[in-house]
Amino acid sequence: MKQGIGRPFMHDMLQIPDLLAGLAAKDIKISVERDRLRCSAPVGALTPEFRDQLRDRKGDIIAFLNMATAAAVQQPAIIPLQSHGTQTPIYAVPGHIGAPFSFLNLSKHLGDDQPFYALQPAGFDGQSEPMDRVEDIAEYFARQIVDYQPAGPYIIAGYCSGGATALELARILRQRGADIPCVALFGPLHPTTYRELPRLLYFLTRGSVDTIAREIANLPTFGARLQYCYDSLRGHVRSLTARLGKNQEPVAVDPVLASREQLKSTAITALRRYTPARYAGRVCIFLPNKAWLRSGAAPHRWLQVMPHAEFYFGPRGCNDFRMLEEPDAPAIAALYHQAMQRADRPR
């Protein structure tokens, strides 16, 4: 499954260091106080352009600075997207790309009272080796969570291929006496998706066709649509040529990006190897829409190990592969609130 964080969104996040460097060059100091940005600047340094960027990118900047702070205090797996609030904290496992920012929009729409921590796997930072067993990844996260917050309760969440890791993480924490009121799985991929070739091909092809169809539908003219198809085909040919070894031009490889590519492949290997164990706690499965039941992701197979799992469905037009991003994040956040309210009702 394509990771929920889209390329344009991830590209925007990668621009944050450049923005902060530009501010620093003007002696403009940026810091985070609770969930607010603080700015200190010499007279005249904070131009209208910089003000607009700070206003428009506030959430991204806070998330980036929180990530840096978390790494500085030796908690590399804990990325605070929202560190304050009275609700039970959520600790969320991203998909196979491992990008913690895939939860940024969801955490924003869950509200200021909902603490939300994304979990960053080993290998994403380019300084550690990725793990190829779900059990090892879950154990790593369990240690990090307990070090960061020694006592529960914790709500464990997972997205896409991270759903399996989230379930294993909740199982480990429960075995050690932690209170886990709920496991929230967003569009979870069952391990059999990557074991059965026909199912995998159908799933990946469906995702590619849906993405291309949406892109073409947004183009204004027939000529633009034709150009998009031509550019896509040319891109695929170039990619195939490179894979066949016909592209002899040397390519500089960024070590962090190389580590993340390795992380993606090892995460898929880990999911393929994993056999989920029975889980007795409460599980809520959030799917982008009812059509997802026939997507090839095999969500019904989770019922074999958690027969009482609750299913919640997003609206019909929800983007299957970007369900946690705008414009669908508010609808998915509303589903989460609905599930939590259901737990609070007397039975």
From TrEMBL:
Residue ranges constituting the Thioesterase domain according to the UniProt record: 89-193
Cross-referenced InterPro entries: AB_hydrolase_fold (IPR029058), Thioesterase (IPR001031), TubC_N (IPR041464), TubC_N_sf (IPR044894)
Coiled coil: none
Segments forming domain TubC N-terminal docking: 16-65
Pfam families noted in UniProt: Thioesterase, TubC_N
Top-rank lineage group of the source organism: Bacteria
Name of the protein this chain belongs to: Thioesterase domain-containing protein
Source organism: Rhodopseudomonas telluris
